[in-house]
Predict the structure.
Amino acid sequence: MKYVSIQEAIKKGKGKVSVRGWVHRERGSNKFKFITLRDVTNVIQCIFEKENFGQEWDALDKMQVETSIKLTGDLKEDKRASNGYEINVKEFHIIGESDSYPITKDFSVEHLADNRHLWLRSRKMVAIMKVRSTYIQARDEFFRKEGFHRFDAPIMQPMQCEGGSTLFEVKYYKDKQYLSQSWQLYAEAGVFGLEKIYNMGPTFRAEKSKTSRHLSEFWMAEAEVAWADLHDISELAKRELKYCLKIVAEERAEELKQLGKDAKEILKMVKAEWPTIKYREALKILKTKCKMDVPFGKDLRTIEEEELMKHFDVPIVVTHYPVEVMAFYKPRDPEQIDEALCFDMLAPEGYGEIIGGSQRSLDIKDMEERLKKDGEDVKEYGWYFDLRKYGSIPHSGYGIGVERIVRWVCGLDNIKDAIPFPRTMDRYKP
């Protein structure tokens, strides 16, 4: 007996089919049992008539939500069904019985978090995870076409990259290490050999934040390019994201629709021009159009990003943030030394920063001074400074918060739903 997916059965349109999956919904009477069967591809209504099953009816009558089952029956069109088709079941076999399922229509956010291992089965979470998977696959495709090499960096590292206050310390035999904030410092070593590299891996930030856009553990998608300046790298980020969004919109239109998003609007946005502005220009927009007077030297907070993006319906790139609020490796603009050669990409609809990148500093003395100011042990960065001593070249890179992309594309209220098992200040299990 050959089993097909529910979506394949629907495409067949009529005739005998064999499918398998889990009970998504169930209801019944003395004569009929109706279940909605789900698998990874779709859902379909299945009808059981008591007169066809005899003693098997007792087992069927006790069947609960999330019971796994195989069944065979006659597929027919029925406009009353949710997707226009139903199966009149002729035989079935229960594979795994289900206890009383702890997730009903009445649930709290905390209850769903406690039962995350089960909530992942929901149609909403399945749709989100499909979008996430497709985005990641599209990214790999993009970089292969662009001639990039995959490059891996250690998860445990001896020093900070994005600020010492957000490090997770771990015991490493008799010494101590820190969970990676970024692959970047090690990636910079890689570009002197491979020139164009990319990666995606787990990233850890001990930020004491409980906002809807922060996680303690998340996935960072990064790229580093030899011979590239700020313009080159920010344009690469635009091309990468446009490529990935196009693939997601084309391949996940149904999932996006289920999540309340229109794939056609995403494709329209992909074709549009994404502007680049400087930080100082952003401040002018905030002051003149949003009545927000942000002094130079302040990083843009979520509230400022949200107000700024009300004036754009596509992602924008903001460059030349103040040096004093940037990481030590982001160089000064030689023509405007209080500005850094860096950029953030901001998403519309209030989702804020989704990509951050920069040229990399070649000035060892300046980097040492900035590290000392941050209270860091400069000796730990000796190997990193070696990269500037032996045939140094201009190079640039960026990092993408995968969950921030998924949250934006799927239109999610909270970033926690953009990852299978979220880790935050308050939650580290299941």
